[in-house]
Structures are given as C-alpha cells and as structure tokens.
Amino acid sequence: MLKHAAIFGLALITGACAYQEAGAPLGSQYFGAANENNTAVLSGDRSYRIQLATRFANEVPTTINFDFDSARLDGNARQVLDAQADWIRQFPEVRFRVYGHTDAVGSQSYNKRLGLRRARAAVNYLVARGIARNRLEAVASFGETQPLVLTDQRERRNRRTVTEVSGFVAARVNELDGKYAAIIYRDYVESAVAPTSLSAKTELSEN
C-alpha cells in the first residue's frame, strides 16, 4: 500500500513539473510560425509589405524586357505578366508599382518618357488580365538612370519594367490585422479540389 502511495505521489510531482501555473506566460514552443509572424507584425517588428514583396520576388518573375526604342510587349513579356497577374489576383488588398527603365541610348528626357510608356504598357496588360487599375501604379520612370549593365550602348537587359509590391489598398488594409497566415495560405484553400469532384473523377477512372 505504501509502495503504491509513493508511486502515486511521485507521479503527481512529475506531472506538476510538466505544467505551469494557470495564468503564467507560455513559451514560444506552444505556438506555430503563423502566430509568431502575426505577433511580430502587430508589434512593428516585421512588415507585411516587405514580406509580401520578398515572396512576390521569389515566386514570380518581376522583370520584362523590351526591344530597342519600343514599348511593345512580346510573347515572353506577356507570359511573365500573366504569371504576375495570377499572383496579384490572390492578394486583393495589395497594391503594386511598375517601374520603367531604358538603356543609355537617346536623350534623358526621351528615355524618361519611353520608360513611362513601358511601365504603362505593363500596367494596361495587367488590367486587361483582371487586375483593378487602382491597385497598379505606373507613375515612376527611372529612364536610363538605373541600368543593370553599365554601358552607353544598346543593352536589352536595361530596357525593362520591374513590378514591385508598393503598399495596401486603403479600404482593405484592416483585413490584414492578425490575419496574415490566412491570407498567405488562401490560395492553397481556394485551389483545393471539392470532394464531390474528386469522387466523380475517381468513379470515371474506375469505369
């Protein structure tokens, strides 16, 4: 009897060590990365815009290129913009800015106008792909002043537009409050196959 009582007492002591007093702060090991991220954003230690900008740059080509003295979108440019539109469509609360660039051939004033034409061409294409115009800006053009390749000759890599996350739609910014994880993974939820569709496909394949 005493032996059993001792074992029971030891179990109680061991169990007590495994739990904290009610109301005591919990360690970070009890929460996942989503909660850690939300906490950091709400405290100002982390920025939604920076995180989304990083994710956009990692997941989608941000740059398209142009022929010399042209703002025409070729097949490769349209393909990149299609990918951008698909990504942008997932985040209706986010705004984007398109920067136009040129190479160094031509006058600075002409190149600034050309860079802006290129940025507007990209924006117009994204709008045609279903992105609201008020979420896109083509107001900045760096002309020839920010080359990727330092040369005063024709250089296709310098003739480009770059799409970047610029901020949030004012009317929807509150949707992000504490909901970053839900927004980030919304595309996964929406892409899920409905069970009925999956069952129907299975039946068809079996028959």
The appropriate CATH architecture is 2-Layer Sandwich
The value of Rg in angstroms is: 27 Å
Structural class: alpha/beta
CATH-defined topology: 60s Ribosomal Protein L30, Chain: A
Task: Let me know the average pLDDT.
Answer: 77
CATH superfamily grouping: OmpA-like domain
Largest beta-sheet characterization: 5 strands, mixed
Number of strands: 5
Task: Estimate the global geometry from the Cα principal axes.
Answer: elongated
* Count of runs of 4 or more consecutive helical residues: 8
Helix content: 40-55%
Question: How many domain modules?
Answer: 1
Q: How would you sum up this structure in a few lines?
A:
The chain is an alpha/beta fold and 207 residues long. It has helices at residues 2-18, 33-42, 48-59, 75-89, 108-128, 180-184, 186-190, 195-206; strands at 63-65, 94-101, 136-137, 141-143, 160-168. Strands 1, 2, 3, 4 and 5 form a 5-stranded mixed β-sheet that branches.
Main features:
about 210 residues, alpha/beta, 60s Ribosomal Protein L30, Chain: A, 5-stranded mixed sheet, 8 helices, 5 strands, elongated, disordered C terminus
Can you walk me through this structure?
With 207 residues, the chain is an alpha/beta fold. The protein has one domain (30-190): 2-Layer Sandwich (60s Ribosomal Protein L30, Chain: A), CATH 3.30.1330. The chain contains eight helices and five strands. Strands 1, 2, 3, 4 and 5 form a five-stranded mixed sheet that branches. The longest helix has 21 residues, at 108-128. It is elongated. The chain starts with a helix and ends with a helix. Mean pLDDT is 77; it is low at 12-17 and 195-207.
